[in-house]
Design goal:
By secondary structure, this protein is an alpha+beta fold. 35% of the residues lie in helices and 29% in strands.
């Protein structure tokens, strides 16, 4: 039996409640009201409903905390030291195309440090959760990053820049550097789940640039608490600011980082 803090229980309950409407909408994906926010960047009524539920549930439990929301932007709270970082559907494009690889992502940032994270994949009822110093879990099972030491044995996840966004040429250089060195590369379409899969050892590493804070905040906590390393491309911890992220175990992280630096040189 996993003993969870009151904080994590609040986050998990909020994710489960928001997931109810997502599952209903996913079953009627053709009927969703969809608008365009920008090139290949969709927002749906499902996104907005889920975010509203998450915000209401978390505010009820912790009234003073602020928010950083994918749809709603930054909302200051009375407690300036703590804020929720939320993506109501990470993998929106998958969701809208009926592809079952999407999740809800909730992180808590305290005094500028990520201290708790929940990534919930509702279709499989997979609740990835972690809190600083308490380990990472998938439902009741403790998570550890993979133990592979050689890049040629690894499966690496990544993200490809959307149409209309910069970075395509650089990404192709990165891909050309990494692809011949590893066993395989996967593009699942959800950064939060990519990081959760690294934490669970399903993937051995993950890299991406041009990523938003709400896509990765919860996943960063998961990887760290499962024994992995997460940095920006410079090997620092400014992932939320730079939008660059590299995650792997301690044997592979530096090797993956070197490949990416070579590609960008």
């Amino acid at each position: 039996m996993v003993i969870r803090s009151a904080l994590l229980n609040v986050m998990m309950a909020a994710a489960r409640k928001a997931a109810r409407s997502l599952l209903r909408d996913y079953g009627e994906v053709e009927n969703l009201q969809v608008s365009r926010k920008g090139p290949a960047d969709f927002v749906s009524s499902a996104d907005l409903k889920a975010e509203k539920t998450l915000r209401a549930e978390l505010k009820k439990a912790r009234p003073g905390f602020g928010f950083l929301l994918e749809e709603g932007g930054e909302v200051a709270g009375d407690d300036k030291s703590q804020r929720w970082i939320i993506d109501p559907i990470d993998g929106t494009t998958n969701f809208l195309h009926g592809i079952p690889n999407f999740c809800i992502s909730i992180a808590l940032e305290r005094d500028g440090e990520l201290v708790a994270g929940v990534v919930y994949q509702p279709l499989g009822d997979e609740m990835f959760h972690a809190e600083k110093g308490a380990g990472a879990f998938l439902n009741e099972r403790r998570l550890r990053v993979s133990a592979r030491r050689k890049l040629e044995d690894t499966l690496i996840a990544t993200g490809i820049p959307f149409h209309g966004r910069p970075g395509h040429e650089v990404f192709l250089k990165e891909l050309a550097a990494v692809m011949p060195t590893v066993a395989g590369i996967r593009r699942f379409g959800s950064a939060a789940l990519d990081l959760a899969y690294v934490a669970a050892g399903r993937c051995d590493g993950y890299w991406e640039a041009g990523i938003k804070p709400w896509d990765i905040a919860a996943g960063v906590v998961l990887v760290r608490e499962s024994g992995g390393y997460v940095t920006d491309y410079d090997g620092g911890s400014r992932m939320l600011d730079t939008g660059e992220i590299v995650a792997a175990n301690d044997h592979l992280h530096q090797s993956l980082l070197r490949l990416l630096k070579t590609a960008r040189a």
